[in-house]
Amino acid sequence: MSHSPTSETWRQKAAALxxxxxxxxxxxxxxxxxxxxxxxxxxxxxxxxxxxxxxxxKDVDRAVVAxxxxxxxxxxxxxxxxxxxxxxxxxxxxxxxxxxxxALLETLDMGxxxxxxxxxxxxxxxxxxxxxxEAVDKLYDEIAPTGPDALATITREALGVCGIVVPxxxxxxxxxxxxxxxxxxxxxxxxxxxxxxPLTALRLGELAFEAGxxxxxxxxxxxFGPVAGKALGLHRDVxxxxxxxxxxxxxxxxxxxxxxxxKRIGLECGGKSALIVLESCGDLDAAAQAAAGxxxxxxxxxxxxxxxxxxxxxxxxxxxxRIAADAARRQPAxxxxxATNMGAMVNEEHAQRVxxxxxxxxxxxxxxVTGGSRALVESGGSYVQPTIFDNVSPKMRIAREEIFGPVxxxxxxxxxxxxxxxxxxxxxxxxxxxxxxxxxEIHKVSRALRAGVVYANCYDADDITVPFGGFKQSGIGxxxxxxxxxxxxxxxxxxxxxx
Length: 499
Description:
Largest sheet: 7 strands, mixed
Distance between the termini: 75 Å
Radius of gyration: 23 Å
Strand content: 15-25%
């Protein structure tokens, strides 16, 4: 009989890991040209788990040069869609085969529970690669209705060299959402993982090469955003820069494009999503459970986190009581324990940022319902309790600014119209949710909400077949679904005059 790994088993597996810590450029691992490295610190216990190559502008340039050479000679871009599909399916199969290793790297690197990394991150990454592999030989081009004296074709062609910069909260999944359609379309890729979580990206680069993606087609350059990320954004031989992260840094990529070669930009940025529970909601247990998961899953480190809970006054106390009870069951614990459902903040700096917002909430006059403190201080790691504030005004900073942690702001309203006004009163527009048993109310509120994804009687429902992205300062363009190909391809019209 097989047994699920215990926390001790996971520690033994972690001790046996071979961690890739060099940059992956042109099909091989390599040190940064200047030899610089940075400490990769696990937020589980503050321990340095690797010293990773710190790529400079020169390293980014050699990765771009390799990517350009690969694109121009057609070793990947000129392959038929069916051949690219076959290689990408091998890549996905290798991800599945190494799912446990990748999940463990993810947990050690950014602190999420191993049970989540194993159940969510690894399989979702493999599914994404598989889906785009399967999709690429099912896309058809077009013939324009120009009349009998011409043939005008509209073909979708690869963009070229894609610079991809991903965040630390879901390092593998966010990378897959971008590299999968980019590679499937025939592009070459230079991936810059977040400096807080570079380890799975480096392993993915190695697995892609092992699967048969040619040298130079998929490169990984770890390093810091203001250096390596900026170098990708400003590089004149990068055809598109695609970023997931904060709105603040997203705006920098818009500037980099204008300062360089007007490269294509795709941005998935911040959020301050509102989860609305109306008086007509008949299943308050389900709503409360979803609301708790929306803010506490992944330690609240989610761009779609339902960080504003907008409750109708008539049902507010009942929902709040249920969520507070849920928070009590989600206290931070050892991420390597399979029973843990809340792990560590990604690093100490971020933990301090979240704690500073908790102090801001107190100072603004919000009522602290539960949480509000560090946890597991003796571990040496970076843990914050799930925290709930009541009596929050929509104008308070904790209701307007993205905290990116397990901090929930509860706002009370007296009507659906007021709930929509509160939800839309934000510079962000990534996600929103409405809970009601009145189908007319559901439709009216959903249509009125200014958000890229609206969840009705659910939250964070997810499938690769639907586009993901936001309105307003939450971004430009969409990840996932066939719509993602719009970012990584150009449309070409070829007009043939018939004689």
